[in-house]
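Researcher: We're teaching a course module on how sequence relates to structure. For the next exercise, students receive a sequence and then see the predicted structure as tokens, so they can try to spot secondary structure elements on their own. Here is the exercise chain.
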Amino acid sequence: MNSPNQLKKFSQVGSALIAATTLCLIFAFVCITFFSFPSIASASSLPTKIWEKEQSRVLLPDWSQITFSSLPAVASSGSSGGRSWQAGTSVDNILKLGDINDVKPEILSLQAIEQLALEDINLENISLSAFPLAGKQTVGHLAEIVPNLSQFQLSDVPPIASLSSQIAGVNSNISQLPIGQAVKQVPQLAQAKLNQIDLSEFAIAQIPNLNSVNLEQFSGWSEELISNIPLLSQVPLSSFPVPIASIGSTIMRIDMIYSRYESKRNNTISGSDVEGFAVACEKNCAYIELDDMENAGRRATGPLEGKQWISGKYQEVRGGSGCLTGWEPTGRHPFGAVFKVVVMEPSETSDTVDTALYFRFSLPCGKSPYIIGPVPFLSYSVNSPMFVGRLEGGSSNSISRSKGVASETKSSKPLSSNQAKENTLPTQPVPESKRECARPATYVSGVDVASLGEALAKLSEGIAKLESAASADYEAIGEMVCTEGSRNCGRAIGRYQLMSYREDVQRAVSSIPGETNFILNVNRGQKPTREELFQYFPPAVQDKVLQNSLAENLVSSQQEIDPKTGQVFKGDHLIERVAQKHFGGSGSKIDASYSNILGGYSLKQYGEKVRELYNHNTSDNCQANSGDSNGISNSVGSGITLNASWSIKVALFISSFLVGM
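Model: And here is the predicted structure for the students to work with:
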């Protein structure tokens, strides 16, 4: 039989083991979130820009810097309606002017194209052979469409003079006549096409005013490849007469990502311009689930909550018109009718999804479905904001058709829809009786990490105005500074002014698709653009890094002795200590009077200010003080509670493990 002292000692050991177990679980949740960073859209080599709507920001392609020739190549070969294309070919070598008549290229002239193109090239010095559409014209037609050409003496227009000299039976005296009169007298000349001679010997400028003719005035203009019109491939897509641009203004958040093992989905926003954009899916329904930006994480639901964008890799819908109707990948048109945006391969294991563009072609009898593709486009992760364009509303009676495409994870076991979907910190469930007055919050050890983050953000705003010469938004960029004898150099970046040399910041940035040397360049002194910061250290990632850091600091601070009380930190002083670690580093001195490297608040003042703001943030939150704020909460995860029986079992297991060691 154990003595009272032995029982007391065993109780103390058991309590310590339970506390240690709880700490391990909290650290485990923190570690999980460290390696699950949601990211903003990445666009490989495509230029991007930040678009803001009210309080929402989203990364969009910068159409003012994107041309048909700069789009990625088509990834698959195909053929239809007498047209064919090969994988690896640029779209400007596949699409003809008639295929893109939605942007009205035909009303442009070479002169206008030269002014719009990104490259600074004088078209008049380019060989006439580089403009094959002109070579396909007859001299008679050129005399009709080129301003004042009919009034020029034949000998003054070298390409036409050369052509005239090669036509049998033409009197040499005709070279002294105006071109308009010459074509009337000599029908053979009027009907001769310019490309009957070697046009590489002549420049475009040698046909006066040719560069001022609108493309639609040339015979056969619609059948000419984009790449065959000088510099047209270099015109930004936003500079066409009808520009490529965002249609509508809806931004949504990617809430969930599901593989093709899902079925029977009918709350969709994908489809086609023939069947509408609410086409249901019966089987093989890979998709992304979308949520209102403003409803992210909140109990309130809106009309757009849970909308589904079905993958076009696995589902197709009816498209096309006239003689060219058929099937195309399901998708949307957030940037107009020239191309279709298609969700491709959603991955539940990595919580990422890639999208692609599909184009169509035209014939006099109709337009094809959107089948020329895929052209790699933007990639996203869970929690990324996504531009979806104009939502038409309504419902559709149509059901998409499964394409029967093998999944990249075909051999793997189907994942549950609920697996690996939450990357947030451990949260405490809100009692039903308090839900109406509770604000959404994330709790660790009884502290509302979300409200603490807001307090830090508010205080950072004043600091950012001094250090970054800008408001403390997610694109704030501080000055270059070095600490610890120049061992750590970098900038305070983002809403929370996190130093770029921090390991957690570097780890987060390196997880973003497409990131190469961004953070390395920042730490070497290069000042990033707002767009670069938004892409490689997006808001969702900034929030996650801060919350992870606060969670770590909370756990570690609760193991430190408060010099004021001689006990572990708790209550208001715990909040102050966590803030001090955020401001001055995990090893900073408690309540120190020194300030950060740029001056301003001392550590003690900073902690006190954050505590004031935190208490203000949680003053109207009826759950703000729930849980055990004086110690580690016994709730370490949503739906996971350390009851007495379970805790004893864990303690005994750990005890056995330690004895075994």
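Model: If you want an answer key for the exercise: The mean pLDDT is 79. The longest helix spans residues 4-34.
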